[in-house]
Amino acid sequence: TSGAQGTSGAQGTNAELFARAQAAIPGGVNSPVRAFRSVGGTPRFLVSARGPYVTDAEGREYVDLVAGWGPAILGHADPRVVEAVQAAAARGLSFGSSTPAETELAELVEARVAPVEQLRLVSTGTEATMSAIRLARGATGRDVLVKFAGHYHGHSDGLLAEAGSGLATFALPGSAGVPADIAALTLVVPYNDLDALAAVFAEHGERIAAVIVEASAANMGVVPPRPGFNRALVELAHAHGALVISDEVLTGFRVSEAGWWGLEARSADTAYTPDLMTFGKVIGGGMPVAALGGRAELMQQLAPLGPVYQAGTLSGNPVAVAAGIATLRAADAEVYGRLDAAAATISAAVSEALAAEGVAHAVQRAGNLFSFVFGEELASGAHDYATVQRQESWRYAPFFHAMLDAGVSLPPSVFEAWFVTAAHDEAAIGRILDALPAAARAAAS
Ligand code: PLP
Q1: What are its GO biological-process terms (predicted)?
Q2: Edge-to-edge strand list for the sheet holding 186-189
Q3: DSSP-derived secondary structure letter, 142
Q4: Taking each helix axis from N to C terminus, what angle separates 79-91 and 318-330, rounded to the nearest 10 degrees?
Q5: Average pLDDT of each block of 10 consecutive residues along the chain (445 residues)?
Q6: Which candidate, 210, 216, 264, places its Cα nearest to that of 238?
Q7: pLDDT in the model for residue 174
Q8: pLDDT value at position 116?
Q9: Is 79-330 CATH 3.40.640.10?
Q10: Contact present, 244 and 211 (Cβ < 8 Å)
Q11: Any idea what DSSP says for residue 339?
Q12: Does residue 424 sit in helix, strand or coil?
């Protein structure tokens, strides 16, 4: 191909590219939600992204509210991050040996998130949660894992039971290929329900190694924890000798300098200290970096110091780590202020447009993450998976397509969070606001 990438027809239309992809790749995609199955239509094949915008193969530009599913807090292709990546790449792509930058990234995380005394880098969020669970099992000598319905922690075997994200989209109970014996080691509890959690501990407490929880749920749409839920959960687990793995792959360094943990640490009524935490997305700045961290005494149970094995050829990859460091260094209070302001403006405008068309809905907010639930029954908000599944989810597809036609790219499922970036300036937000009346009308019909 030539330098004409991004101009009309350079590589074919989106439809042509999708047809070709479907022949070469299962479903035409390398991650299910990208296939537009829940909204219908043709996925856009993107060729470039800058600031708050993405451009497809037909040369069409969209204001982006997916942000790479979270990492791009500074906006796409931020020059500071791109330069750091280019400089690191020029020094070598992968060494399979320790580098000074890995320590720097660990120190940056530890300086912001107090429960993280030590950090181990991996490449994906799935690996981070999988390794954290093995560590919790190794440290406690117990096998059973508790998770919450609608929470997504990646696609490892034990974590797909009643998970959100693509599984919410497809309404699958779990996944084929997961042995029943492995699924039986995961207990699923309704979110925000401390009584149900207490009952599970009362019955199985001595077998439970850990509770894994999204610090704030955002893979069934956004469903924040009730105030004090995380704190009570940690107390309950500890009373039974179980550990808590707080999954901040999505929320970490996005909703505040110290993630969701940092927001709740601001009040004594909500502050909590998980044993282990997992990160991804933002800490890689758009490159494959994720991590698990926690108390040093626990983390030192990992190989080579301890008996819990964990490893990776590409773990701490120098080019990826450079992107993470540049992103975290740039993510200061001003950036979080811009993210919060953009989220407030956009979510209020969507709500206003829907209300103007008489579409019953609620705004679901967790810091600068937000999404919407549709229907009269949910107009006061949703706090668990069963409730979000009862919404009028069919209203989302026409809304989504009206926005896309007007040049705004939303997550292609009602069960995903919307992601703003600090690059969403007045012009980009203005384009979103202009598109809303027609989209709200589409949702109303
Ligand atoms: N945990 C949470 C909370 C996530 O949102 C995700 C991905 O969306 C994961 C884990 C899995 O991360 P990855 O897709 O990098 O494997």
Answers
A1: protoporphyrinogen IX biosynthetic process
A2: 118-122, 290-294, 276-279, 243-248, 208-214, 144-148, 186-189
A3: -
A4: 150
A5: 46 95 97 93 97 98 98 98 98 97 98 98 98 98 95 91 61 73 89 96 95 98 98 98 98 98 98 98 98 98 98 98 98 98 98 98 98 96 96 97 98 97 98 98 96
A6: 210
A7: 76
A8: 98
A9: yes
A10: yes
A11: H
A12: coil
> Can 64 be counted among the known catalytic residues?
no
- DSSP letters, 260-296, are HHHHHTTSTTT----SEEEE-GGGGTTSS-EEEEE-H
Q: What is the pLDDT of residue 6?
A: 44
Query: In 3D, which of 112, 145, 296 has the Cα closest to residue 213?
Result: 145
pLDDT in tens, 397-413: 999 999 999 999 999 99
Report pLDDT for 178. Answer: 86
Active site residue 425: no
- The residue whose CA is least distant from atom 10 of ligand 1 is 153
Amino acid at position 199, single letter: A
| CA of residue 41 to ligand 1 center, whole Å | 25
Is any ligand 1 atom within 6 A of the Cβ of residue 219?
yes
**Residue nearest to ligand 1 atom 7, measured at CA:** 154
Query: Which contiguous run of DSSP H or E holds residue 330?
Result: helix 318-330
How do the domains of the chain map onto residue ranges? 79-330
Burial 285-319 (b: 16+ CB within 10 A, else e): bbbbbbbbbbbeebbebbeeebebebeeebbbbbb
Whether the CB of 123 sits within 6 Å of ligand 1: no
Distances (CA, A) of 172 to 159, 161, 242: 13, 9, 29
